[in-house]
Design goal:
Number of helices: 13
Radius of gyration: 24 Å
CATH topology of the largest domain: Dipeptide-binding Protein, domain 3
Structural class: alpha+beta
Number of strands: 20
Distance between the termini: 44 Å
CATH architecture of the largest domain: Roll
Largest sheet: 8 strands, mixed
CATH class of the largest domain: Alpha Beta
Strand content: 15-25%
Shape: globular
Number of domains: 3
Length: 516
């Protein structure tokens, strides 16, 4: 689990506020919008607490502020590929161990200073020295960094690591401004120290909102939207009312699959598949789930069109089967439930009275879990449900791997490298191999793929891993969420694409504009 947003599906309140929009949208449509037509208003219930750009423990407003203000050497595009951002070009040696990166010329900080490799050095030092909790920190311990001149950086790795460019997406901070206390409520917090190279310059921040003005020297071109305001609402109802009264330009939400904006003249709905996974883990370290046959039989019941259709019906949000890495091929053939039942009962040998199923206290996960329970109960498998009220309680259970089944929403890494989720070395906490998959052949596939810098050969290795994963069935990848961006019809530029974090919706915000 990488962040407090990883397990957070608490945006479900949008189901309520959009139902309110249906009732009151006519009033909003007829009201006079007093908003400045050059200002974009985004609403959220998350209020920023810590603006440290390197923190992995960000709430949504903190993540959004970082995306508007900062850039990295590289960024992730909608296809999940790292592409240049502040970097101009890069080269890699044939052995995959040395990367030479050249930064763009004439990149200006918000205060007018020029970006140099000294800023890159400063940012890497801050990352290494102040964020030991960051899983990438272990990677940086084995990397030597050299600076040839003001625009060239050389990264030397002890061994090839194909996902390396995805680790160069961290924000670059200026070396000429002292690191300050990033806690917004602290008396030591200094607004003027939040300086980046991104499309917007932060002007002020309060308990109510953060205000930005466009960066006139942004390297991709001056943003067409002049001002941006991120407004913080204390309650969900206040945010709902703001949307109803046409006070906001946009807000992002998790919505039911059948929601549309057909009847709402002021708004349009954009769909964003999200790089997250809802996974049913089976504890491979315990009987009977150390049996491949048992795991395959359970998968045969759940991995069916009937199950997925019912799951979507019961889900409070829009979901898609599988995830971005495992393009899940749901069984289209008819399953003989009687044969499956007989096979399961035979493979279980001496079944328990009940198997433990652990989950967070989350309404949507509980609804989907009920469908899983019903499907397996029909096949004589009973459950002892354990609901963790908070993340700390869940971590305590996970640390000891004290479960038979675990259903969890996971925020996936930027790169499809499956090492952290499925490699044997990650079984022991804080590793996140929650199934306890222990397979030497799987390990070798993962290790070979993450060392292979040839894109096509690496893709082939991942395909082999996926086949091995499906054969072993250590877990069942159920679905990933579809976020909806409710945005005013008068704004052009945003489009439907894949997000690897929610703030990725601002990838091309410099191209957004108002039109009449």
């Amino acid at each position: 689990m990488e962040s407090k947003n990883s397990l957070g599906w608490n945006n479900l309140f949008y189901v309520f506020f959009l139902s309110c929009i249906i009732v009151s949208i006519a009033i909003a449509n007829n009201s006079n919008n007093s908003n400045n037509s050059n200002t974009f208003y985004e609403g959220t219930t998350d209020k920023p607490i810590n603006l440290d750009p390197f923190s992995k423990q960000k709430n949504q407003s903190e993540e959004d502020i970082g995306a508007l203000v900062f850039n990295g050497l590289f960024k992730i595009n909608s296809n999940g590929m790292p592409v240049v951002d502040l970097a101009n070009k890069w080269e890699i040696t044939p052995d995959g161990r040395t990367y030479t990166v050249e930064i763009k010329e004439n990149i200006f900080w918000h205060d007018g200073k020029i970006l140099t490799t000294k800023d890159i050095d400063h940012s890497i030092s801050y990352l290494k020295n102040n964020h030991a909790f960051n899983k990438n920190n272990s990677i940086w311990k084995n990397i030597s960094v050299y600076f040839n001149d003001k625009k060239t950086i050389i990264f030397h790795l002890q061994e090839p690591y194909a996902p390396f460019l995805s680790n160069l997406t961290f924000p670059i901070i200026p070396s000429h401004i002292p690191i300050n206390n990033y806690n917004v409520s602290s008396t030591d917090f200094k607004m003027h120290s939040i300086v980046g190279t991104g499309p917007f310059v932060i002007q002020s921040i309060s308990d109510k909102k953060a205000m930005f003005v466009r960066n006139g020297s942004y390297y991709l071109g001056v943003p067409k939207i002049k001002n941006f305001e991120l407004i913080f609402y204390q309650t969900k109802k206040q945010l709902s009312n703001a949307m109803n009264n046409n006070e906001l330009s946009a807000s992002i939400a998790l919505l039911p699959s059948n929601f549309t904006t057909t009847d709402h003249e002021k708004y349009k709905l954009l769909k964003h598949t999200m790089n997250e996974s809802l996974i049913l883990f089976m504890n491979n370290l315990r009987e009977p789930f150390n049996s491949v046959e048992v795991r395959r039989n359970i998968k045969a019941i759940i991995k069916s069109p009937e199950f997925f259709n019912k799951m979507r019906e019961n889900s409070l949000i829009d979901v898609v089967p599988g995830n971005l890495f495992h393009s899940y091929k749901w069984a289209l053939q008819f399953h003989n439930s009687e044969l499956i039942e007989q096979s399961i009962m035979k493979s279980l040998n001496n079944p328990k009275d009940a198997y433990s199923l652990v989950m967070l206290n989350n309404l949507n996960i509980q609804n989907i879990s009920e469908q899983i329970i019903k499907s397996l109960k029909n096949n004589k498998i009973n459950f002892d449900i354990k609901i963790a009220d908070n993340s700390n309680e869940l971590i305590s259970i996970i640390t000891n791997r004290d479960y038979d089944f675990l259903i969890l929403n996971i925020k996936n890494s930027l790169d499809p490298d499956p090492y952290y989720m499925w490699h044997t070395s990650q079984i022991i906490y804080p590793g996140i191999n929650f199934s306890g998959l222990n397979d030497k052949f799987t390990d070798s596939l993962i290790e070979d793929a993450r060392k292979n810098i040839d894109y096509y050969e690496r893709a082939q290795a991942y395909n082999e891993f996926k086949q091995r994963f499906n054969d072993l069935s250590p877990a069942i990848i159920l679905s990933h969420p579809v976020y909806s961006y409710i945005i005013n019809q008068s704004i052009s530029g945003p489009k439907n694409d894949t997000l690897f974090k929610l703030s990725d919706r601002f990838r091309d915000i410099h191209l957004w504009e108002f039109f009449k």
